[in-house]
Amino acid sequence: MITYLKKDTAGFSGTAQDSPEVQWIIAEAPTKEEADHLISTYELPKDYITSVLDEREMARSEGNWQNASEHPALILVQYPIASLSPSGYMQLDTFPCAVIQAKNEKLITVTNRTTDFINEVRTENLSQSQLSTKNAILFQLLWRISKHYNSFLAKIITEIGDLEGELKIATENSQLYQMMDIQKSLVYFESAISENISVIRQLYDTRKEAQKFDHLPHLHDILVEMKQALTTTKIQLKLVNQISSTFSSIVSNNLNIVMKILTSLTIVLTIPTIIGGIYGMNVKLPFASREDAFLWIFIITSIVCIGVIRFLKKRNLL
Length: 318
Prior knowledge:
The chain is an alpha+beta fold. It is about 55% helix and about 15% strand. The protein has helices at about 30-40, 45-50, 115-120, 135-165, 175-210, 215-280, 295-315; strands at about 1-10, 10-15, 20-30, 60, 75-85, 90-100, 105-110.
């Protein structure tokens, strides 16, 4: 789907088709016909559009973003998306987002699905910004993406904290499945954020060399936010790896404790069985001729069982 937006006092408003007033074109999961239309109408390289359809496309930049009058410029970054894993837990993945500056100064964003951060930027009022509209949109998109990374990382930290609280009673595989989903999400994040930082750093250095110092504070804030997300990702990935190893050891130890208790109880319950088996023999035995033989046998059996239980507890076997 292609949406044409023009800037107004409240943010951006949509129009039915392209016009000179349109400054931002949003293509979400474009069809082949829509992709071909963008490529031919705005004279874009084909890979600028088709690369977004590849979910594993790496972040990169092409062309001169400062001057795209002769050739379109591309900035491709990875953004995070939350989904439900096959094991039933939250899993985070990353997908490419292409931000293209066409020759006519129009900005085109292409994603392979509907995204929250683009909708957030659409509703913002950029009229107070001293930057050009294309740069204001680009910097807001990058800023929103970086904030989304940190927001998802906060949820991961909460999940890890909850898992740590379950360590003492963990005896099932469900926690391990959740840990696996968290590790997978962090691996995707580490790779995507590192590539995004390289692209933003390249844009930052280009602006610095061209002495576009009015842009540097915005790019610097985005870099700081991205670096914070990368640092948090690396720390949490190390913690998850350590917790995963500890988690497996605790699960194994808990199962050993359960088996130890069951084995001790089996020993205790074997005593009445042995005594009952002996008194089931057709031979002369103590108390056999007494009318209260069952009561005495029960008392002696109980005393022996209690003695064995106390012995096992002293040896920490029960």
